[in-house]
Amino acid sequence: MVLSARVVLVAAVVMGLARTSDGATIFLANLTTSQELAVVNPTLADGVTPRPLSFGSATFVLNDAMTALSFMATIFNIDVTGTQTADVNDNLTAAHIHASSNPGFLPPATAGVVWGFFGAPFNDNNPNDAILTPFATGVGGTFSGKWDLPEGNGTTLAAQLPNILAGRSYINFHTTQFGGGEIRGAIAAVPEPSTMMLLSGGLAILARARRRRTHAQS
User: Fold this and answer.
1) Which tens digits make up the pLDDT trace of 77-91?
2) Could you tell me the CA-to-CA distances from 30 to 57, 69, 160, 163 in Å, in that order?
3) Rounded to two decimals, what is the model's pTM?
């Protein structure tokens, strides 16, 4: 029991040291239909014929000065140009970051748009860093951009950072069929590679100490 407590303590200390010594903070989001508040059952415009389930992933990097949040997101089976498929239901209409200041916020609850990078509102405009790269073949594409301090949908990055760091934000892609969102991903901070290396090293030391202790008692 004591050793387990030490493991937790060392993990917390190591992660804290790595977070302060490293510059950027990294966030990940796994985009799925199941995270949406409403049930998502993608079909063609006839309302009957199913279409491929959409999905994606996104990576966010908050710089050391906490003045810019860069991101790259790749989505599949959503028509990002309106010409990748003949049907209209899978057409992308908007894409945003949503966030809530409510301490009790829990997915799949919805939150307001705080920064848009495709469609309306569009807030990547000071300067415009938004880039869309449609797939050369297939349906979908890659988005990238940067949320700078002056930007925001009636808010700012500085105002929303506490919500993002607290895990109360998500990235959402909206389509013709699902105006409220077809795929969504909670934005969660993850340890940097150096954090994981330090943590693994600390846990390895504790594991060796435990083996020695067990051996000495046998």
Assistant:
1) 999 999 999 999 999
2) 5, 17, 20, 18
3) 0.79
